Amino acid sequence: MNRRDFSRLSALALTGLSLPSFSAASDLGLQGGSGAGEPVGYALVGLGTISDIFGRGCLQLAGKNIKVTALVTGHGDTKGKEWAARYGVPESSIYSYENFDRIRENKAVQAVYIGLPNSMHCEYTVRAAKAGKHVLCEKPMAISSAECRQMIDACKQAKVKLMIAYRCHYDPTHLETERIIQSGAIGQIQAFEGGFGFNAHPNQWRLDPKFAGGGPIMDVGIYPLNAMRYFVREDPTDFTAVVSTRDKTSHRFDGMEQTMEFTMKFPSGVLASIGTSYGENMPGFVRIHGDKGTIELGPAFDYTGIHLRSLEPRIHADATSPDDQTFHFQLEATHFADCIRTGATPKTPGEEGLKDMLAIEAIYRAAGHPIA
After folding, report:
1. 284 lies in some domain
2. Which is catalytic among the residues 124, 166, 170, 223?
3. Per-residue pLDDT tens for 30-43?
4. In angstroms, what CA-CA distances link 111 with 93, 142, 185, 245, 328?
5. Could you tell me which residue ranges the Gfo/Idh/MocA-like oxidoreductase N-terminal domain spans (predicted)?
6. Residue 340 is assigned to a structural domain of this protein
7. Same domain as 271, residue 236
8. Which of 42, 67, 113, 139 is catalytic?
9. Is 278 marked active-site?
10. CB atoms < 10 A from the CB of 168, how many?
11. Claim to verify: residue 245 and residue 135 sit in the same structural domain
């Protein structure tokens, strides 16, 4: 189902009826790519949890012109072979980080999916571009705006496409939220509230500034930040921010802040307030206030069960995303594959990631707290 079809169906939300809850990708008519020919082959770069979810999404699209065709890992003889068996990848298409550049010779790979720690995104995007491969890179795009620009330039010079994996841009419930806002049903937007956080366990890369590049805003706070930019269709110009670390004993936060709260003002006058943390279980949400009503996404950024509701009885908004952990990944993999086939620009190109990084840098400056 394209956006027009979904909007037609979800118009029920404004006529007093509820939207259906989508239980499977097939409910949206997900076809796994348009056009004929050989499948678009993805190389999974970094074999962590998120790459596995992406890969399983590609498996569900088997026979629909998308497949996993190569793996990049530092554990080729163990994890690499295990994943190769899982995804039907020949062992000759298992690469290490050292010989990654040889991927240019693999004609079965048209694109790479980068699921590495943040500080490695730039290097492997640039190397993939030089190898002639299109790049789907996880968010945050990089750890600085300078790196983002380097990635954009490298892909342009190599004439390959660059897409940032903002999966919620492809989620039907987020699309319905956007449609309701643009319809004027809740009136002129006045303010946004949002947040996302979790209690991070020690000894993981996201708590190491060398790999993460910053605190929780880089990992989870970027979700509501990006959503508010997306929904208001503007980029913020004014920022305030404060950071705090209350946990002084576990040493989890020796290299970064534990919690951050920040505000943004957009050119139209819309205000946004966001909290993010690695020290509390903060379910992701976005609350959108208009002068005629309020709608809320909550949970807003989970892999499954994203839910839209109205906080105003007069406005009927009720939609829930499918209970399928791979659903968003199928949507973004399909979208990028279609862009590769047709030459279209991805909906979330590198420039989208750069805008978020510029905002994050401004937020850290407003906090008087240098980015890690």
Report:
1. yes
2. 223
3. 444 444 567 899 99
4. 14, 18, 40, 40, 18
5. 41-166
6. no
7. yes
8. 139
9. no
10. 25
11. no
